[in-house]
Every structure is written in structure tokens, then in C-alpha cells.
Amino acid sequence: DSGVTQTPKHLITATGQRVTLRCSPRSGDLSVYWYQQSLDQGLQFLIQYYNGEERAKGNILERFSAQQFPDLHSELNLSSLELGDSALYFCASSPGTGWMVSTGELFFGEGSRLTVL
Amino acid sequence: SQQGEEDPQALSIQEGENATMNCSYKTSINNLQWYRQNSGRGLVHLILIRSNEREKHSGRLRVTLDTSKKSSSLLITASRAADTASYFCATDKYTGANSKLTFGKGITLSVRP
């Protein structure tokens, strides 16, 4: 158990809909990362937050947004869903960011599997 | 774009044999990490090697890094059926506060009992 909690584990929805994925990082971790994993694209970095502020942005679509709240949990919002958005969405956490990361490793949750029909 | 490219894409070995997986990357890095993912599960960190290190060991794992060739290898010795999983290399370019890991597409390792 990594200590990172993601909900829901599975989600099935229709095209055009909006969903919210939730992540609770390990106790004490300030950084939260979101990744998307699909068969064709592999593991793609979406976005990183550190202590409530956006720190790095990857291949995140404009239809997607995220935020990190004062209690450090994070939410990833996916809107106007398309079939191609079907994927596993992972949240990961780490103690810090950049040079502040003690070991450099990320701790991953079990993921939220999104199926868009 | 993917920074790390693993090789081979799939590997099937007999229990007890050693498994060697390779990773190549394109740009300079601060560190390189290997992760394991069991089917449908989250990724688990295995080992990290920094750019100024050449070799590192952790249990049955041995990682090497050759920055001149921009490549790394992960060796799993005396493999077990429980090692069956996908293995990913991830590189950190370290851009200060925007440091982030970039993952390769992974290697599927099957260990036959």
C-alpha cells in the first residue's frame, strides 16, 4: 500500500459528460502528480501541484483541469469526454518538488479506470 | 514525447534465470528510476540512480547507468514468477521547481514457473 488513495476505482460514462477524479496523497507529501496511462500513448504526465500551486504542466488537454486543495488532496476534472479519454488515470505524490525531493521517487495510487462509451 | 525508450518491449524467461532490461533516453538527466507495475495496478518504485552514479544494487536488482551512451539497464537476478509485471524506466530532467518524471512505454516481463 503506497498510502496514496484514489477514487473512484472505476468509472463508466458517456461522451460529452464530465467527471471528477479524486486523490489523497501520502500523509505529509506536498506534491501531487497526475498521469494518464493508455495502451497507445503509454504513461503521460498531465500536471503537478505543490502545496496548492500548479508547478508543472505536461500533455494536459484544455478540457482537463486540476487543483490541489488546502488539505493537499487533489482533483482532476475531465470534461466534454471523448472515447479517446478512456484510460487509467494515476495520481502520485512525493514529499517535495525539485531539489526538495528527498529521494526522487513517486508514490502511486492504484488508479482510476475511466471508460467513455 | 517519451524520454525513455525501453528494450525489449517484451521478455519471457524461465524462473531462476536473469532478466535484463534496457532503457535509452535522449537528453541529459538528473536521475533515472525504474518502476514496476503489476497488471492493472499502480506503479511501484524499484530503484533510483543519479547521473553521477554508475551502478546501484537493491536486493536482486542491479541498475547501471551510462550517461555517455544515455542508457541504463535493469538486471533482475534469479527471477521468480512474482516478478511478472511491466517495468518502466523514468527520467528526471530536473528543471528546478518544475522537475517531473517522464516514463517510457514499458517492458512486459513474463517469468514462467
How would you explain this protein's 3D organization?
The complex is a heterodimer of chains A (117) and B (113). Helices cover 0% and strands 51% of the residues of chain A. Chain A has strands at 5-7, 10-13, 19-24, 31-38, 42-50, 53-57, 64-68, 74-78, 87-94, 107-108, 112-116. The relative contact order of chain A is 0.32. Chain A is mainly beta. With 113 residues, chain B is mainly β. Helices cover 0% and strands 57% of the residues of chain B. In chain B, strands 2, 4, 5, 9, 10 and 11 form a six-stranded mixed beta sheet that branches. In chain B, strands 1-3-8-7-6 form a five-stranded antiparallel beta sheet, with no helix packed on it. In chain B, a hairpin with a 5-residue loop joins strand 4 (31-37) and strand 5. The mean pLDDT of chain B is 90. Chain A binds chain B through residues 2, 4, 33, 35, 42-43, 45, 48, 50, 55-56, 58, 88, 90, 92, 97-99, 101, 103-111, 113, and chain B through 2, 31, 33, 35, 40-45, 48, 88, 92, 94-106.
